[in-house]
Amino acid sequence: MKRGSLLAAVSAVLLLTIPVAAAAALVAPAASAQPDPPPAPGAEDLRLSWSSLGLPSDVRFVSANTNQDFRMPLPAGFTPRRLQGQIHAPVNFGPGFVEIEDARGTFLGAVNLPTVSPDQAVVPFDVDLSQAPSTSSPLTLSFTVRQNTGEGQICGPGQELHISQLTTIYAGAEPPPTTVDTFFAPVLQRLTIYAPGDADRSEQEAVLALASAVERAYQPQPVSITVANKPRDTPPPAAGQLTRAIAVERGTAGLTLTNPGTTETYLRLSGRGDQLTAQVALLRDDLQSMAQTTAARVDQAVSPTDRSGDTVTFGELSMEGKDEVLRTSDLTVGVDRAALGGGRLEKVRVHLLADYTPVDGDDVATLVVRANDDVVHSAELDTSGRVDTAFDVPSDQFGERLTLTLTVTYTPRFLCSSMIAPLTFQIDEESTLTVTRGGAARGGFAALPSGLMPAFLVALDGSSPNQLDYAARVLVAMARVSSVELIPRVVELKSAAASDQPALIVASSAGLKQTDLNPPVSGEGSAIRVDGDNLRVDVERGVGSVQAFADTPRDRPVVLVTTTAAWPLVDPLIGYIEGLPGGWSGLTGDVLAAGAQGTPTDVAIRSDVVAQNAVAADDSSNRHWGWIAAGVAVLVALAIAAGWLALRRRLNP
Q1: What does the alpha-carbon distance between residue 202 and residue 141 come to, in Å, rounded to a whole number?
Q2: Cβ atoms of 110 and 92 closer than 8 Å
Q3: Distance from C-alpha of 321 to C-alpha of 175, rounded to nearest angstrom
Q4: Where would you find the membrane-spanning parts of this chain (predicted)?
């Protein structure tokens, strides 16, 4: 779980019960050379892919004798038993192996490098982790490639080793939480937040704030967070393994673990008015580890503050990197737009500082810097051993994330020699980013979530009992690609529509008639309007959509979840976003829509989004016409609409 600074915000936390005794440390299993001991009563194997733990499931090495460290979380009550994966045939590595150790330097196992042959292109491996410490989470694993090069010469193409599909097998059984701090376990797969069916705005706001805080606290673990309705003052259903239930409703302020130590346990978050959202500060400010009791209360909380100032160092943004280079190497650092502070950005000025091994004689070295694939700087590396340069990156060259890729090429005079030493290149953490703020509101999915910073409005028109769940899941999808917490404030629909603040609105097409909002796709029933009145189409049984557009009259971005017919049309859209490899960042247009067959399509309707995506009209049309083969009516209609609008823009620039 991510740990924030206690100084980031001020919270007064009152612990209401006597702390319980700490659990006894688990004893490490037998050594890897011995058979695994029989599991304890009630224990069972638990397989978790590294991606579900927030770790990379694929690891690449580009040289020998360099290590990569990974902090692997341990589920409560479980001990790590085995590490499994696949090792691919190496490129330009001699005979060798991958050595795996823990943070203490204890040898855990080794995986032989496969020979380069068709029958060993990909080889599965299984490493015993029973000697690893299992008393605290996370467990640090260090991977190092060892090789015997024979003559000690480095020749031919660059080295590369690929390990994929990493999975850890644990043994044990999860104990039910007994205190507030153990409720938030190191590994959490699913959280269900329960709210009364007649939840008022303060309860709705607390639910959304809680969803945002939990997502940020567990990053990069992909926790599934949903909202369900329940009758007021009734307990939620029991939660299963690696899952939790939290009930949010009016009452005496505090967080109370109900039925501790049983399978029926859940956390109750209660309060009145602003007290409800204030309780979320316990998790937001990373104070839950102090609540070693069954109840706690936040009496005062300070809202998260936006980053101040327009200049920030690489060190403050954790944009650090160092590499040993022989031939070519890419060093990549980046930051999401939201971390640069709220508001819009016109451009970012990068002052890049770096140190490297001086290059002289007949050796040749170069540096090429790309900002999201656009070359922004290039130079030869010389005897100075120092990079000191500045360049601008316009905001239209990057979406929600600014990524700098530094390609260093080093060609020594004698390329194949046992005397060669690689060039060391290191980014100076005193490098800076200076932002110039301004510009119009951006439309499209790529403008979010930074467009919602630092705070935004949420409105539900009440036409579906699942609207709070839709809002929470869209919020979590955006929070998952942001390093900054999203701060929702729930208001009524008319207030959100008329405001100049960014907004997330969940409303039916009938509800939208009460407003003057002009989304890219609107309509009623099967009658669909695309881009205002520019095009009208008929889609049998209606269309559900998630839209992100610039509300030009109020100069702000709006996220809209809506349907022209039944609300279940929206369900496959939310699931589609959650299933994308990049989540929200995998969306490219400004409308995600589906009809009765439930097949989502992501299209760009408004011209500003087409320009942002740099999508040529012909390519756009060809891609859209490819959807027609699927035989899905809504895809055909919106594809034709988007292609027609793009063609019209070409003919009438």
Answers
A1: 44
A2: no
A3: 40
A4: 625-647
Question: pLDDT tens-digit profile of 376-431?
Answer: 999 999 999 999 999 999 887 787 888 999 999 998 887 666 667 788 999 999 99
CB 179 within 8 A of CB 249: no
State mean pLDDT over 254-279: 95
Helices of type H across 292-429: none
C-alpha closest to that of 270 among 215, 217, 199, 212: 199
CA distances from 644 to 190, 270, 629, 649 (A): 43, 52, 18, 9
The residue among 592, 611, 605, 594 whose CA lies nearest residue 531 is 605
Place of tokens 């709070």: 468
Joined together, the tokens standing for residue 12 give 């007064």
Question: What's the CA gap between 628 and 636, in Å, rounded?
Answer: 5
Distance CA 632, CA 646 (A): 21
Maximal C-alpha separation, the chain: 79
pLDDT tens digits, one per residue of 630-653: 334 455 555 555 555 555 555 555
Q: How many whole angstroms separate alpha carbon 50 and alpha carbon 52?
A: 5
* pTM of the entire predicted model: 0.83
Reduce the secondary structure of 245-283 to three states and give it as a string: EEEEEECCCEEEEECCCCCCCEEEEEECCHHHHHCCHHH
- E-assigned strands of 148-233? 161-172, 190-196, 224-230
| Residues contacting residue 378 through CB under 8 Å, at least 6 positions apart | 366, 367, 368, 369
Residues 6+ apart with CB under 8 A from 522: 509, 512, 528, 529, 562, 564
Measured between alpha carbons, how far is 394 from 601 in angstroms, rounded to an integer?
A: 30
CB–CB of 565/573 below 8 Å?
no
Is the separation of the CB atoms in 132 and 139 below 8 Å?
yes
| Domains defined for the chain, CATH in brackets | 44-172 (2.60.120.260), 176-301 (3.30.379.20), 311-437 (2.60.120.260), 446-651 (no CATH)
The position carrying tokens 């209609």 is: 637
Residue 603's nearest CA partner among 650, 653, 547 is: 547
In the numeric block, which tokens belong to residue 79? 């001990």
Q: List, for residues 33-84, the tens digit of each pLDDT value.
A: 333 444 444 456 899 999 999 999 899 987 778 789 999 999 999 999 999 9
How many Cβ atoms from other residues are within 10 Å of residue 142's Cβ?
Answer: 15
* 3-state secondary structure labels for all residues of 344-372: CEEEEEEEEEEEECCCCCCCEEEEEEEEC
Evaluated on CA atoms 641, 642, 643, 649, the torsion sign reads: positive
